[in-house]
Amino acid sequence: MNAHLLVLEVVVPLMAAPLCMLLPSKPAARMFSIAVAWITLYLAWSILGALGATEHGVIAYELGGFPPPFGIELRVDWANAYLLLLVSGIAAVVLMFGPGSAGAAVAEGRHAFFYTAVLLALAGLLGITVTGDAFNVFVFLEVSSLASYSLIGLGRGARAPMAAFSYLIMGTIGGTLFLLGVGLLYQMTGTLNMADLTTRLPDVLDTRTIVLALALLIVGVGIKLAVYPLHQWLPNAYSFAPSVVSAFLAATSTKVMYYVLVRIIFTIFGAAFVFETLHADYLLLPLSLIAMFGGSLAAIYQHDLKRLLAYSSVAQVGYMMLGLTLASATGLTAGLVHVFNHALMKGGLFLAVGCITAQVGSSAMGDLRGLGKRMPFTCAALVVGGLALIGVPSTVGFVSKWYLVQAALEQDLLSVAALILLSSLLAVVYVWRVVELCYFSEPDATQVEVTGRPPVREAPLGQLLPTWILIGSTIIFGLTTDLTVGTASKAAAQLMGVGP
Amino acid sequence: MLEQLPPGMLLMLGGLLVPLLPRRLGQALMLALPLAGLAHLWMLPQGLVMTMELGGYVLDVVRVDKLSRVWGTIFHIAAFLSVIYALHVDDKVQHVAGLIYAGSAIAAAFAGDLVTLFFYWEITAISSVFLILASRTAHAYSVGLRYLVIQVGSGVLLLAGTIVHYHQTGSIGFDHLGLTGPGPWLIFIAFGIKAAFPLLHNWLQDAYPAATPTGTVFLSAFTTKLAIYALARGFSGTDMLITIGAIMTAFPIFFAVIENDLRRVLAYSLNNQLGFMVVGIGIGTELSINGTAAHAFAHILYKALLFMAMGAVLHRVGTIKATELGGLYKSMPLTTAFCIVGSMSISAFPLLSGFVTKSMIMTAAIEEHHTWAFMVLLFASAGVMDHSGIKIPFFSFFAHDSGKRPKEAPANMLLAMALTAFACIFIGVYPSALYAILPNDAPYNAYDATHVVTQLQLLLFAALAFGVMLRTGVYPAEVRSTNLDFDWTYRRALPWLVAVIRKHGGRVWQEQKDLGLWAARGVIGLTRREYSPEGTFGEPWLIGRAAVWTAFVLVAFLLLEMWLRVSG
User: Fold this and answer.
1) Residues A174, A177, A181, A184: what is their CA dihedral angle, to the nearest 10 degrees?
2) Which of A153, B83, B251, B516 is least crowded, fewest Cβ atoms below 10 Å from its Cβ?
3) How far does A54 lie from chain B, in Å, by closest CA?
4) What residues form DSSP beta bridges with A193?
5) pLDDT for A307-357, tens place per residue?
6) Which of chain B's residues have a Cβ under 8 Å away from the Cβ of A275?
7) What confidence score (pLDDT) does residue B105 get?
């Protein structure tokens, strides 16, 4: 029975998506997709529980009964189970954001498309995570990508389709490079099964073809993960998409791609080959440090809150990449913990922006003036989320940075540890900008007159509740780290090949 | 249940409740909180440790011992007095900030490990800045931000030091550290910033005079004394502290005498008093640590009293510039009287609190044969008499009559000053009450003949010189020279010294400042140009450029691999 959980995790949302199109009304589609998301969350939770009961921490499922490496295998260990829980959990919470899905952000009459696309994206992301087959990753990658291009295009502004289009081009380049890499691997080993690749690759590791394959895979995934300087699709995509979509994608899409990169480097090729023979860290370490500073610096000077958050995401990806590049159990734990933690804070922050755009009609920094009095709960969410971004103790951000700094110190990289702390100060600057506008500035008199809208009020409960579920968990998981650090360290040990 | 509640938590949580209550009820709660907190503190048994598990680490959230209890007690008392003093203020931001600030300082004094300390350290920084911002002027705003950056920066150093220290020793316990490696050094500097070590001190004179009249009273009590506590806990017996402390006692005097803003004069004299405590920590004997604790206790009271008196003047007159005040005793007699009690305490007149505590540190210095440190402290004691003992009350309440006739201070301010003045006298007369709660068992008697006579000689001679000069007309009415005339031994030396310091020090400082500003502007300008939405890195590039970058990274990766092969 346990093994069937794996296939259900993908099949349920995949089958539900077309059904959603057929539903007669908007509320029906909404309730249906929420139900589906919660089922996937339940399944993910069961998988995590079932994994704890196994001896080696692996559950495998042969699709259609064909044994691997010929048939497609679904294979879950601690790393995937952790990601499954995150992705389905975020989807379950974010879909609750209502009423009317993205509120005004999605055009009337397109709501059925909206929910269908979200479910497809969810199915794709869960599929990438659950599968044990490299080519299958590509297939699900395309499923989720195509769905997310259309989701971004649903945004109301005139620039949303253009942002979706550039993301499509960049995403397709990434997908193509990934496929080329998988093709080269198949050419050299004759297999697509990841576990099988692990055993067969060592024979051919010193060929140029394999090096090229690795380069293609890293760069291909790097585009979708928004590794600096391949991040350029991200700011536009996140800032012109409806806020709910930004929340969903920021909290899941890049996180799953991080998992794929971890899988490629640590499971398929092995950390020893990538970091000791090829020294990919010579390239990746500087890039992640540049991301930490470049992303934060760009965030400081933005005129729009959504763009600010988008650039801050670029910086946060830098922290995750840094954890991976350190190539130790602690570093990988830090990276995986930050994946989870950043999903919570960025998801919550983008939902808070969703509350603001729904009430104020814009997310421009200037429109935040004096909002602290009129939308106290939303602005408080911004502040708590911002504190988590900075890494204040008792928030999740502190937990991530603590482990990251420990990992850097483990390898006597004092300067890297110092840079981590220094870049947190940049986060203080951009978070302070938001706090200052919300609480210490008075709204412009002219602005109020020109817009002529009814006075801004606090967002409805249907929007505040999911926002605060995510923001609240940034505190909860900042205090109790059993689930996050516990699972992440098991996953890291497994990936490094030292533990169950 | 009571034992599960960390000290200070009552004030912090209660502080959050205050804005939700009606005004009268809120005031009652604000008064009740410090008293309840103090009672709770004294109910906690000695040696109690509360632990909490966080992310696999066991934190000692609370550790009650004698040292922390001294600070906890005086912090509660200071919070109570400050609340009374600020009771008339109709600004909820200040009330909430004040209570959270006091509560977090108390909680920090009971932190048993460095992570907990860091947590409360940052809360004190963040909550206290609102007391400065509450002045609601452009000047206060920029001062507040400077203050915040420095205070939070001190916290970041503390955290960095903690991590390094943990990495080296595997311990995050907040016990005696000593300067044993990079970790403790970072922590030491973090403490030093908050304790306003020389060259790290400017935030203090910058920030305190900019806060609201009531806010300064809060500020003067907690931040720096918390740092003194932290130093006493972590670095007692560190020889370097004797030098640092001695410099701290001496150099602010020069600045205090030429300063016109009387609250800034007090800020300098605060710095000078901290120096005594730092010397006490540096000596590190049982007596000197006792002296530091006792002096911190007494100092919080009389310094608060002085800031209260100056705050009352500022509240009624609207300025605190020495040149614009004078003759206020006619309409503010009670404030005048309380101010004089504070001045006499800080100058260490026998029967007042400063006398019984400062002498402990000086005696410890002699006992341990730190002769030159003792001499500096003696000089500094005379300096204190000059700028705080005479200058403050003389220029505000006496001197040439400014013609101003403000009303007497509000009743709640007078009550707060009366209670504080009573405490100063009480400690001076019954020092054994204070000695009983000191951390170490080192018997001491302040009232022996030698000490009383020496101190009286010093003070009476100063008063005599002051009187003679005033009578003979040597004492000019002008502010600056009046300050310099009080003691003939350095009557000639000081103007010259001040002039030299102002001339050269000022120029070097100006050049440093210019260089720093130039560099800062350059960095900000460059990043703004390149990272703003219009800049190279701030604007998402066109698809073509993005694709080129993709190719570039790919090629870079392959080149790297080729280079590694070639170089073997």
Assistant:
1) 160
2) B516
3) 24
4) A133
5) 999 999 999 999 999 999 998 889 999 999 999 999 999 999 999 999 888
6) none
7) 95
Nearest-Cα distance to chain B for A63, in Å, is 35
pLDDT band at B479 (very low <50, low <70, confident <90, very high): very low
B499 pLDDT above the threshold of 70: no
- Which chain B residues are within 8 Å of A307, Cβ to Cβ? 533
- Chain pair A-B, CB pairs under 8 angstroms: 112
Region B371-397: mean pLDDT is: 82
- Average pLDDT (B349-363) is 88
Residue B506 sits at φ, ψ, to 5 deg, of: -60, -40
Higher pLDDT, B100 or B463: B100
**Integer-rounded Cα radius of gyration of chain A:** 22
Q: What are phi and psi of A159, to 5 degrees?
A: -90, -5
B465 alpha carbon, distance to own chain's centre: 32
Model ipTM value: 0.81
Residue ranges per domain, chain A?
279-500
Contact criterion met (CB < 8 Å) for B553 and A229:
yes
The enclosing H or E element of B349 equals none
Residues of B in contact with A234 (CB under 8 A): 540
Residues 340-399 of A with CB under 8 A from B: 392-394, 399
| Cβ <8 Å between A279 and B564 | yes
3-state secondary structure of B329: helix
First-last CA distance in chain B: 67
Omega within 30 of 0 (cis) for the link into B7: no
Which chain B residues are within 8 Å of A211, Cβ to Cβ? 558, 561
With beta carbons under 8 A apart, name residues in chain A contacting B537. 294, 297-298
Instruction: Determine whether the interchain pair A223/B550 forms a contact, defined as Cβ–Cβ distance below 8 Å.
Output: yes
- Contact B170/A at CB under 8 A: no
Strands A59-62 and B57-63: unpaired
Give start and end residues of each alpha helix (H) in B441-492.
449-472, 479-484
pLDDT digits (tens, 9 = 90+) for A61-117: 888 888 877 788 888 989 999 999 999 999 999 998 876 444 555 556 667 788 899
- Contact A215/B557, CB-based, under 8 Å? yes
Cβ <8 Å between A219 and B545: no
Each residue of A148-169: b (16+ CB within 10 Å) or e? bbbbbbbbeeeebeebbbbbbe
Q: Which residues of A touch B535 (CB under 8 A)?
A: 301
What's the pLDDT score for residue B489?
A: 36
Q: How many CB atoms lie within 10 A of CB B400?
A: 12
Look-up of token digits 């109690």:
B48
Whether B525 and chain A come into contact, CB under 8 Å, resolves to: no
- Helix, coil or strand: residue A128: helix
pTM of the model: 0.73
CA A193, distance to chain mean position in Å, is 25
Which residues touch A96 (CB under 8 Å, ≥6 apart)? Answer: A34, A462, A465, A466
- Chain A: nearest CA to B308, how far in angstroms? 28
Does residue A62 sit in helix, strand or coil? strand
| Alpha-carbon gap: A206 to the closest alpha carbon of chain B (Å) | 11
Contact A300 B556 (CB under 8 A): no
To test the contact with chain B by mutation, choose from A207, A211, A396 the residue with the greatest count of B C-beta atoms within 10 A, namely A211
SS3 labels along B159-198: HHHHHHHHHHHCCCECCCCCCCCHHHHHHHHHHHHHCCCC
How far A198 CA lies from chain B's nearest CA (Å)?
21
Instruction: Report d(CA B115, CA A41) in Å as an integer.
Output: 35
CA dihedral for A400, B12, B147, A440, sign (positive or negative): positive
Q: Which two tokens stand for residue B45?
A: 């048994």
Residue pair B177/B235 in contact by the 8 Å Cβ criterion: yes
